[in-house]
């Protein structure tokens, strides 16, 4: 049954994406940029609905009140394709720094360009990165919310942290609050996994880290904050969903946490 539901969801997800992208293109491209953002927000909300109705996976958000007014940086743990879009309905005007190759995808790349996302060559240095930072500051000055995954890539639940220092440089340069976010999406929609699992979990938006810290101090504080909150939420999520098959990284981390608690 799980496999059947997962196949049905995957089919519905891609059909929903393609049809909306084609049918709503006239509305999207003829609308002002901010008004056009309603199209991807509605798409994200519809996919959350599909996950609920077909797979039986739902989430609740804690800490919405921690999102500051104006420009800020969202710093979520990254585990799944789901977490790249699931929170779009709750964000005002987000901007992503993304790899430039995504801009080359027909139609999708045009959608991204319309929202003034910031493409970057991951191997770039020097003047290219200076231009990326200039673009980032411009968008943040307009009150947008930058989405950046501090680890840079998807990691399975419970995996050892491997943070990149880039977020500390951006924090130093743009001087806005950073909002850490944790959730264990990967227990329900794993990376490159066909099967999706039912259950209910929490997305926890933590209090913002205000600007003004030394970059090294901020970097260490962000890692400590995210990892502590992620560990706590991993225990909660697994206890609330005992049916879930856990990846080896989660099994190992839970054993470590239980040993620490018993010591």
UniProtKB/TrEMBL annotation:
Pathway: Lipid metabolism. PANTHER family: 1-ACYL-SN-GLYCEROL-3-PHOSPHATE ACYLTRANSFERASE (PTHR10434). CDD domains: LPLAT_AGPAT-like. It comes from Aliirhizobium cellulosilyticum. Its EC number is 2.3.1.51. InterPro entries: Plipid/glycerol_acylTrfase. This is 1-acyl-sn-glycerol-3-phosphate acyltransferase. The keyword Phosphoprotein does not apply. Keywords: Acyltransferase, Transferase. SUPFAM superfamilies: Glycerol-3-phosphate (1)-acyltransferase (SSF69593). GO terms for molecular function: 1-acylglycerol-3-phosphate O-acyltransferase activity. The keyword Membrane does not apply.
